[in-house]
Amino acid sequence: MNKSNHNSGLYKFENDISTNESPIAHLMKITDIKIFVSCPGRNFVTVKIETDKGIYGLGDATVNGREMSVAAYLEEHIKPCLIGKDAHQIEDIWQYLYKGAYWRRGPITMAAIAGIDMALWDIKGKVANLPVYQLLGGKSRHKIKVYAHANGETVEDTLDHAAQLIQEGFKAIRLQCKIPGLEGTYGTLEGKKNYYELQSNRPLPPEQPWDTHKYLNFIPQLFQKARERFGMDIELVHDVHSRLTPIEAAKLGKALEPYNLLFLEDSVTAENQAGYQLIRQHTTTPLAVGEIFNTIWDAKELIENQWIDYIRVAATHCGGITPMKRIADFAAVYHVRTAPHGAPDLSPICHAAHAHLNSWANNFGVQEYIGFGETALNEVFKHPLSLRDGYVLLADKPGLGVDFDEKAAQKYKYKRSYLPVTRLEDGTLWNW
Ligand code: GCO
Ligand code: MG
């Protein structure tokens, strides 16, 4: 629009947002974007956006095992485009990075966009002096139900772990157990205090074996024994980690029906979304998927066909808070609830972003919860989350409510690390 016909009140409509100026009087220039890759217990890619008003925002852009690709994407391809732009233009910046790259989607691109998006929501909240959930529309609930993880080498180990979590007040628990006859599988301890594939100086990805027949023969017993020991009140979850085919998943879902799961997670890979239609035709066990999804498109058919019950996207991996709000609203139309991914390879900034979204979304279901036990992690990230009686509470702080200690982060240097890979017993590469 021409300068001569602009309105000289609060809004200045003359500026084209593709320039570095904003249409609103509240212009707040991005002056720098810093990218930190640190390892306080495990690797995190942290984005800090600084503005000319002295207010900064933080975002999480971690892709486990591929951290340096996101850092390079941010440093080399995003940062130069955003210096001088108005930090208030979250929607335009998101579209600029998504559509403007020409190369859409993919985990690296979407994590980089997510880091920026979260940091911009953090800034907007700080400017408004409001927590981000207020900017989303306010609270639908005052506490956030979570599910904790019980893992073990044997059924007894796993159930002892679950008993301890029930004692601590958790209302929902995920059960994973080593499969007899298989050396180590997803969710088992392998002698570590934490089963996650933490930084362990392994030069290359470790390999784990898999056998579907052994797995399918074993898992129903785990849930049968859990119901015998704990009764029907406690809610139970299981993560298949995409190891099955649709008909195998259908079989497992049917076998687990008597044990009334809250949901069965990642029963098959979802590149072919119609795989879930097949599972759905055979079982009433609720289905959840989405932790590796990058955009709403990965979930579109799953949601609109009502093939799933819970959508598990993470803010860090699906492009940030902006698209996650859209996915939640879209899911609500089809009775699908949100159950955000909550693994420890998401930084406390992402966990905080989820807490704001979970406070707001009417169709929130449950949040995966691992906790923030690591000393190094708590030294680097100060977060607004606490746990009480199986629920996460979110303290009222402006923005996302997380702070990041850059000096402390420097002490914990990035360590190259890989997720494991899985092979069938004859050597065939399978899904980890
Ligand atoms: C979960 C996930 C994680 C992933 C991890 C990969 O449900 O918590 O499956 O355990 O394996 O996030 O980096
Ligand atoms: Mg999972």
Summarize the structure.
34% of the residues lie in helices and 18% in strands. It has 432 residues and is of the alpha/beta class.
Walk me through the structure:
By secondary structure, this protein is α/β, with parallel strands linked by helices. The protein has 2 domains: 24-130, Enolase-like, N-terminal domain (Enolase-like, domain 1); 135-399, Enolase-like C-terminal domain (TIM Barrel, Alpha-Beta Barrel), CATH 3.20.20.120. It is built from 13 helices and 18 strands. The protein starts with 29 loop residues before the first strand and ends with a strand. α1 (67-82) crosses α3, α6 packs parallel to α7 (246-256) and α7 packs parallel to α8 (275-282). Bound molecules: D-gluconic acid (GCO) and magnesium ion. Magnesium ion binds at residues 239, 241, 265-266, 291.
